[in-house]
Amino acid sequence: MNLRTALRPFAPLALLLLTACAPAPIYKTAPGAVTALPAQVAHAPEQFGNGAVIWGGSVVSVRNFPDHTEMEVLAYPLDSSQRPRPNAQGAGRFIAIFPGYVEAFNFPNGSLVTLSGQLSGTRAGSVDQAPYVYPLMTVAQSHRWTAAEMRAGHPNISFGVGVGVGIH
Asked: What's the confidence (pLDDT) of residue 16?
């Protein structure tokens, strides 16, 4: 019997333990919620109407207006805890519209956020010199992730054979 065969019965237990470490999602997904990514919504907004969405990503900018605040976000896919996965490929950009005033200092550029809200159309704009269509989301709830929250549920366990040097 080789090592792989001997360890096979423990695989479900290991998966269960790793899953148990992951934090629960922060927002409840509404029935019929839009699961498309921002780039998909930008290409065919008529297919998605004013559906509920939960999107996240990295803050690009925050702009305050007299009656609302707009946050441009570079979207990333979300993990099972609804945390953005910044090491994944970007999934488009969107503009999150907050009613009232939001302090830009609390959402510095590069902050990771998860936002829950309703689609509210699109807006033509540009990214640098390139034309771009931004899906608009009216925000109901927002969460800025701390470094500790992003690490939570990600055990520092690795398996391998060999010699290595790590600096922490």
From this structure: 43
3-state secondary structure the chain: CCHHHHHHHHHHHHHHHHHHHCCCCCCCCCCCCCCCCHHHHHHCHHHCCCCEEEEEEEEEEEEECCCEEEEEEEEECECCCCCECCCCCCCCEEEEEEECCCCHHHCCCCCEEEEEEEEEEEEEEEECCEEEEEEEEEEEEEEECCHHHHHCCCCCCCCCCCCCCCCC
List residues bridging with 123 in a β-sheet.
134
Q: Which residue has the higher pLDDT, 24 or 119?
A: 119
At residue 25, does pLDDT exceed 50?
yes
β-pair partners for 15: none
CATH 2.40.50.140 for domain 37-151: yes
Q: Would the pLDDT of 157 be above 80?
A: no
pLDDT value at residue 106: 94
- Domains in the chain: boundaries: 37-151
**Rounded to two decimals, what is the model's pTM?**
0.75
Residue 122: both structure tokens together:
């699109």
